[in-house]
Inverse folding.
């Protein structure tokens, strides 16, 4: 199986490094991790430089070593980071010490944000020893009630990431509450359509099986007892969930109850976006930057 | 307070066998389950279903059913109606779903509840025994409401609290799940959680506390800090009841036992007792466990009524 360590190694081995706009950068976790981040990307620190310098010195580091922009107002800091991305002076956006609603309003939902013509979605990536593979769960944070058209975009976003990290022929489980189509449950209908689209090669080589309920998606024995013949077997790379409520709790429960290392990334914008979530460990944060870097390099889709 | 399924199993083996009615027990794996539970003296079974099929399957698994009451019926809705009627008239303690679609049973329970003016909705509580948690956790509703309204959520919470009270949890802590992180526009699940918390504080759902957090992560890590080590989480801090926003989420979460170190048993708690609803993918070991859960619930309800 592909491991997080391999992804970090792969991202670190690239000779050209993406520029990482961190804003507001006065975030203790991020600043502490800068030496490890530097192996993957070139940080640009945007924020209150006095605070940033103070935190860095506590970790035996120095602000002088980094490109930086002084901006004491957190909202202005994130706006400056956005501008760097739009001007191609930075390639990845990292949320620092700013609230999620402000990030949403400036970056995710603004006309002049980072998604004017794109479709954003969040992908949780778990290194699951239990399932013997790297597992992607999407969308786990952005889209409240995605319709079929949105789910196609969510799936395509995830497929870009799988290819960037080296999964060539990803297998997708389009999850629903039932393993058969129930006209009263929209997720079962959407999953069936996506599966048929994949049969017609509308997602290249990808196998999409759906609708599947979770037991059929993770256990061949369970699928057998339900008389479900699934082409993804127990080798699912992407769990495409019906909406953010399912995705968010699925990812969190897997990681927290199963001690499964997790990282996450917002994709589909002009640049990969890394958000600041309390349940992401230091290791997870490094993996997030590695994922963003690999995605940036993948066929230069962000160039 | 019943802390885990070992205690459930022990209690089930100590009490007098209770009456269990199997709804459509003509499938081999399921009938084997009834046989095992009968031989372990958890239950005195009655079977409703196709007599010829039941006899044939019983022969296949070497199950002597000569002393067991069998009610011949082939129509799935009639099977469900007869079994649920037996529960509501006190002729059985525990109906259990066999080889028929769940919807027939839900429909029958709802009709019986409505006829008595008891409850307008029902819910499935999936009980988890999580390694390291040191208490049981109910995930609800994992089977009935596709997209529960606010009023339905109130009934779901009331049912779950009643169940956990029965297990000896005097004031269960309740987590109302929501995916709202501030990165989306407001989610109904989040605003409803706030209002439900206020209602719980006024005692609307029995003796319980709805916690401030709306995610599992929020239970383990403060929003202004970062998680240090996944291996060092205090699983004992998981609330006793977790209310899911809708069926899609409930189905995923309730069956994470296929991946994680969790044991699962599911039950519908009606006004007249438990109804066991095994998943079609469950093996007979798991279903025997679900039967012991039903036995203990029925036993505790009888004790409460005395």
């Amino acid at each position: 199986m592909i491991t997080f360590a391999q992804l970090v190694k792969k991202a670190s081995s690239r000779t050209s490094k993406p520029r990482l706009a961190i804003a507001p950068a006065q975030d203790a976790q991020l600043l502490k991790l800068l030496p490890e981040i530097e192996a993957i990307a070139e940080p640009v620190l945007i924020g209150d430089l006095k605070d940033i310098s103070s935190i860095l010195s506590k970790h035996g580091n120095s602000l002088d070593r980094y490109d930086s922009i002084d901006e004491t107002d957190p909202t202005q800091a994130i706006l400056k980071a956005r501008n760097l991305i739009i001007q191609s002076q930075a390639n990845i956006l990292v949320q620092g010490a700013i609230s999620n609603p402000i990030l949403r309003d400036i970056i995710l939902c603004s006309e002049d944000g980072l998604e004017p013509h794109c479709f954003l979605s969040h992908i949780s990536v778990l290194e699951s020893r239990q399932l013997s593979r790297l597992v992607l769960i999407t969308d786990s944070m952005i889209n409240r009630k995605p319709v079929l058209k949105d789910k196609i975009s969510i799936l395509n976003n995830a497929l870009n990431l799988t290819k960037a990290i080296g999964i060539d022929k990803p297998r997708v489980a389009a999850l629903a509450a039932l393993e058969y189509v129930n006209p009263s449950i929209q997720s079962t209908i959407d999953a069936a359509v996506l599966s048929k689209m994949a049969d017609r090669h509308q997602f290249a080589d990808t196998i999409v099986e759906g609708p599947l309920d979770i037991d059929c998606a993770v256990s061949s024995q369970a699928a057998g007892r339900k008389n479900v013949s699934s082409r993804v077997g127990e080798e699912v790379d992407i769990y495409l969930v019906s909406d953010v409520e399912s995705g968010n709790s699925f990812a969190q429960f897997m990681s927290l109850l199963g001690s499964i290392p997790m990282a996450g990334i917002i994709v589909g914008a002009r640049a990969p976006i890394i958000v600041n979530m309390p349940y992401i460990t230091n290791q997870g944060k490094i993996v997030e930057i590695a994922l963003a870097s690999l995605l940036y390099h993948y066929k230069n889709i962000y160039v | 307070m019943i802390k885990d399924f070992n205690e459930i199993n022990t209690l089930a083996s100590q009490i007098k066998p209770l009456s269990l009615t199997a709804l459509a027990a003509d499938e081999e794996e399921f009938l084997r389950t009834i046989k095992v539970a009968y031989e372990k003296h958890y239950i005195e079974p009655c079977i409703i279903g196709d007599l010829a099929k039941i006899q044939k399957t019983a022969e296949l698994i070497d199950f002597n059913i000569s002393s067991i009451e069998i009610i011949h019926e082939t129509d799935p809705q009639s099977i469900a109606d007869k079994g649920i009627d037996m529960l509501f008239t006190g002729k059985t303690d525990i109906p259990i779903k066999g080889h028929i679609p769940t919807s027939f049973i839900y429909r029958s329970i709802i009709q019986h509840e409505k006829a008595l003016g008891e409850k307008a909705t029902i819910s499935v509580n999936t009980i988890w025994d999580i390694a390291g948690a040191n208490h049981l956790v109910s995930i609800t509703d994992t089977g009935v409401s596709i997209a529960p309204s606010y009023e339905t959520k109130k009934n779901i919470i009331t049912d779950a609290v009643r169940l956990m009270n029965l297990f000896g949890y005097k004031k269960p802590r309740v987590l109302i799940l929501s995916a709202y992180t501030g990165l989306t526009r407001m989610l109904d699940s989040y605003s409803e959680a706030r209002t439900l918390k206020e209602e719980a504080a006024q005692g609307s759902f029995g003796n319980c506390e709805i916690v401030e957090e709306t995610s599992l992560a929020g239970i383990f890590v403060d929003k202004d800090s970062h998680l240090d080590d996944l291996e060092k989480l205090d699983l004992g801090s998981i609330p006793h009841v977790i209310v899911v926003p809708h069926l899609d989420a409930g189905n995923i979460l309730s069956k994470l036992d296929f991946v994680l170190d969790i044991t699962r048993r599911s039950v519908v708690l009606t006004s007249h007792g438990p109804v066991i609803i095994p998943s079609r993918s469950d093996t007979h070991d798991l279903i025997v466990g679900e039967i012991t859960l039903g036995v203990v619930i029925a036993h505790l309800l009888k004790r409460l009524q005395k």
Summary: Chain B touches chain A through 52 residues (CB under 8 Å). The first helix of chain B runs from residue 5 to 14.
